[in-house]
Design goal:
alpha+beta, 4 strands, globular, binds zinc ion
Length: 104
């Protein structure tokens, strides 16, 4: 691991706010520091670390185009479906109409 990555890991392990705005963290595992991050095979909103198996949400919010990162303390889980959602509050879950209402 290079020094820059180590600094990022140290910073965001202490304070997880702001991870979503750091593009490098899309390819860096906060748990083990691996850069072997690949798309999750079952969920296109998720990435998974090939080294330790940790999976996390990382996708672009369909409502405002901000990046959502499930490891970021500002990206909370949707109370209905559990998906980590954008700080704007939009939920992009494929849901029934009643679910969509309760999410918005
Ligand atoms: Zn890992
Ligand atoms: Zn948003
Ligand atoms: Zn939802």
């Amino acid at each position: 691991m290079d020094l820059h990555s180590e600094k990022l890991l140290k910073k965001y392990r202490e304070d997880r706010d702001g991870m979503r705005n750091c593009p490098e963290l899309a390819g860096l595992c906060l748990i083990c520091g691996s850069i072997h991050i690949v798309p999750h095979k079952d969920d296109h909103r998720k990435l998974v670390c090939r080294n330790c198996g940790f999976a996390f949400y990382r996708y672009v919010c369909p409502a405002c185009n901000s990046t959502v990162d499930g490891r970021d303390s500002r990206n909370r889980a949707c109370p209905e479906c559990g998906i980590r959602i954008c700080s704007c509050g939009a939920c992009g879950c494929p849901a029934t109409p009643s679910h969509e209402r309760s999410c918005s």
